[in-house]
Amino acid sequence: MVANILNTREVLEKGYKKYSLNDKAFFIPQLEANNILIPPAWIKAYKRAPTSDLNLDGAIEDIRYLLGPQIRQNSYHIEWTRDSLTPLMPSVLDWLHEEIADSLDQVLGKYNHDFQKVKIFPFSLSLNCRIAARIVVGKPLCRDVKFQHLCEQHSQLLVVLSMILKFLPTWCKPLVVRLSTLRGVQRQITDLVRPLVLESYRKLKLGDQDSKGTVSEPPEEQSLMDSLVRTAISRTPSLTVEEDVVHEITMRFLSILFLFSGSPTLTVANMVLDLVSEPRELYFDALRSEITSVFEKYGGRWTLENLKELDLTDRYVGCFIKESMRLRPAAFTIAGRKVINPRGYTLPDNSATVPLGSYLTLPMYAIHHDQNHYPPRTEDGSDFDGFRFKGTENNEAVPLVGSSETFLSWGAGRHIW
């Protein structure tokens, strides 16, 4: 268990080579339950497993200690993202472009054309937090320096505490969270968000808006706070006290914030580092030419259509991003599920029955670094091949958004394939 904590990557790679490549599972001991790593050959059977046997919510149950039990019990904010945010993406995209441009101007200087030193990970975290905040709370709060710092601090605390809680027994998890600075940060964010939440809630109470939880056109106030409040009231009828509404919306916002600032932060940072680490003539010129061409084709404005065009299988941009995600995944494992069937879960090869409370995951990092699937670049032996996924006469192109048994950055659940 100590080796797993200190040398996770090495442990997973050894287990992958010894067991996964032979279509066998292996386990890593933990304090509360074993972590079972299943081989890629079982992925299709794994994703078809009934939710009465394996459950995603059980695998992320520690979230109740960090953001409250209601986040797990009623995850309506996920549905809100799909039903309210996704249909408005063409308009919301203008907000995102505005925040990205303003962030770059602050870091690089609006009229400065000289090279600047930028700490890419802090910048990526700040940018993703700011984008999430713009969508939910809007301007000017999303640009408030104190608010930005608190959002970044909260996202980092969630990552650290999640890793710590994973190795602790249940009885001491609430204590560890209370001893951390998480609750203090949450209180400060709540104080800043409170006026916006109360404004939306009071408008709703006055009958100025319906409570369906969806919107059909971009709101004039340039945020989706009203929509989120409507959804919360609709899905949680017990919310009648104003302070309870404020707390509820703040926790939902922080959950959405974490979705934006977790994996996307690492993906953006790694992609930029990969781009500047390679010789300019290999990737930079081709990517810039392609982006400029698509940008000008749509009248010098970013739209959902031209972003989709950059992800076409014959485009360099989507291929480059996918290779960066492949080589530097955001986690060592993915697609975690918890065994919730009291009788356990029988592995697809019938070799064993995994007991109640155990966790099953896929060794994503090891799969992504398997040279049988991803051979080194022929020119110089580099593991990174930015156009690996681009179609050729002998190789079918692979789109950016999509998973397979050898590419798992988007997950391995029913929603993927």
UniProtKB/TrEMBL annotation:
<keyword id="KW-0560">Oxidoreductase</keyword>
<dbReference type="Pfam" id="PF00067">
    <property type="entry name" value="p450"/>
</dbReference>
<dbReference type="GO" id="GO:0005506">
    <property type="term" value="F:iron ion binding"/>
</dbReference>
<keyword id="KW-0503">Monooxygenase</keyword>
<dbReference type="GO" id="GO:0016705">
    <property type="term" value="F:oxidoreductase activity, acting on paired donors, with incorporation or reduction of molecular oxygen"/>
</dbReference>
<dbReference type="GO" id="GO:0020037">
    <property type="term" value="F:heme binding"/>
</dbReference>
<comment type="similarity">
    <text>Belongs to the cytochrome P450 family.</text>
</comment>
<protein>
    <submittedName>
        <fullName>Ent-kaurene oxidase</fullName>
    </submittedName>
</protein>
<dbReference type="GO" id="GO:0004497">
    <property type="term" value="F:monooxygenase activity"/>
</dbReference>
<dbReference type="InterPro" id="IPR001128">
    <property type="entry name" value="Cyt_P450"/>
</dbReference>
<keyword id="KW-0349">Heme</keyword>
<dbReference type="InterPro" id="IPR036396">
    <property type="entry name" value="Cyt_P450_sf"/>
</dbReference>
<keyword id="KW-0479">Metal-binding</keyword>
<keyword id="KW-0408">Iron</keyword>
